[in-house]
Design brief:
By secondary structure, the chain is of the alpha/beta class. The protein folds into 2 domains: 132 residues, Rossmann fold, CATH 3.40.50.300; 253 residues, no CATH class. Helices cover 45% and strands 18% of the residues. It has 18 helices and 14 strands. The strands form 3 sheets. The protein has a 6-stranded mixed sheet, sandwiched between helices. A 5-stranded parallel sheet has the order 2-3-4-1-5, with helices on both faces. Strands 6-8-7 form a 3-stranded antiparallel sheet. Helix 8 crosses helix 14, helix 10 packs across helix 14 and helix 12 packs across helix 13. The longest helix has 22 residues. It is globular, with a radius of gyration of 22 Å.
Length: 394
């Protein structure tokens, strides 16, 4: 089945390679970067190098000697953040190739850590590459009929496509253990695996809630600075999202703490021991899990360059997700695990304050209905299509 699922990024990466010398594709481990890169490489003259393999690393010990022989080919380098010294050589390669007429489609770099990789490459490769983030499967990629399974299991391919809920759960448990015991230490970070697991699990219990660093620090028996460091790490690994509060209304008393949630719903459920849909629907996290699941899908569907935040005033006006699209068009989106297409008075007040161009309620029904105050209620799949149409210029 995996071969039948076309990733949205396939066309985006090919289009970027047609105009840029290189593309950096970011995403957590096991999200499908390598599979996508190999699909792209199969359609052109390309070579693939994996920096986790000693033999491939040795090939690039003197990068210019090797890469000079590959001019005209697409060079795919996987887990590139493991060789930070490579970026300077790639800059020289790109510049020399440009002078000989090879201006586009030279390098596809895959990385599993965002800020770490960006800091290494931003200065060296500025103006030479474009950056893209590959998320786990989204609803539009796998079909709206799969929504219950995608929400329960999450979008990591091996978890979503597992033969049973038990097999999926086992994969996610192994994924979490591998990240804690192998992947995070490989970045040179000395944080006890058990402490980080407890932190990750505490975030799962508070899914989609406001960050309360003092509460987390007290629960872990560490300092507030340690909590900030753990959170930075999980955000950097693209496993947790820190959704900022809206801050443009300087005169309003707005909540300043960010909302924090685990980006893949399946990992949330694995950390909490939720294996079946019945268990999920009866669990206190169900509302926060649904909100986080919808937010990730909506942000992924938004046009490139959109900014995401939420709105909450001290007076109670609230919007779950604000998307500021290119050209400063604001969409206000409320998310509810309900079949009743109604939003609160606070949503209307906040949407008016922001002069939101679109006001949507994403709710658990399959019908799209007009609501009060210009709000349209619709299922998640319809909201995704509506956002994607903005990116298509429709």
């Amino acid at each position: 089945m995996r071969g039948m699922i076309t990733r949205n990024h396939l066309n985006r990466i090919n289009e970027a390679l047609a105009t840029q010398a290189g593309v950096v594709l970011l995403g957590p481990r096991q999200v499908g970067k390598t599979t996508l890169a190999q699909d792209i490489a199969d359609a052109r003259d390309a070579i693939y190098l994996d920096m986790e393999r000693q033999s491939d690393r040795q090939v690039l010990e003197e990068p210019d000697l090797y890469l000079d022989e590959q001019v005209g080919k697409l060079v795919v380098i996987d887990e590139v953040q493991l060789i930070p010294g490579l970026f300077g050589a790639l800059r020289g390669q790109i510049d020399r190739r440009r002078r000989t007429g090879y201006r586009t489609g030279q390098f596809l770099l895959l990385g599993s850590a965002s800020n770490t990789l960006l800091q290494q490459s931003a200065e060296s490769l500025a103006g030479r590459v474009s950056y893209h983030e590959l998320t786990p499967f989204t609803l539009d990629e796998v079909g709206e009929e799969t929504l219950p399974g995608l929400w329960l299991r999450g979008g990591f391919p091996d978890s979503f496509l597992a033969t049973s809920d038990r097999t999926s759960m086992t994969w996610r448990e192994d994924f979490i253990r591998t990240y804690l015991e192998r992947d995070i230490p490989s970045f040179g970070l000395r944080i006890p695996a058990e402490t980080l697991r407890r932190f990750w699990t505490m975030l799962a219990h508070e899914q989609s809630g406001l960050l309360n660093a003092a509460k987390l620090a007290a629960g872990l028996g560490v300092s507030g600075q340690s909590v900030a460091r753990y959170l930075d790490l999980m955000v950097d690994l693209m496993l947790v999202r820190r959704l900022p509060s809206w801050h443009a209304n300087a005169g309003k008393r707005l909540v300043k703490s960010p909302k924090v949630y685990i980006r893949d719903a399946g990992l949330t459920h694995a950390l909490l021991g939720i294996e079946t849909m019945e268990a999920l629907l009866g669990h206190p996290v169900v509302g926060g899990s649904w909100e986080g699941f919808c937010i990730e899908n909506l942000i992924a569907a938004a046009p490139r360059g959109s900014e995401a935040s939420f709105y909450r005033s001290s007076a109670g006006a609230e919007i779950d997700l604000i998307l500021k699209l290119p050209a400063d068009v604001i969409w206000a989106i409320e998310i509810k695990r309900t079949t009743s297409p109604k939003v609160t008075r606070g949503f209307h007040i906040a949407a008016e304050e922001l002069n939101a161009a679109e006001r949507l309620l994403v709710y658990a029904s399959d019908r799209e209905v007009p609501g009060q105050g210009g709000v349209r209620a619709m299922p998640l799949a319809a909201a995704i299509k509506r956002l994607q149409a903005q990116g298509d210029g429709k």
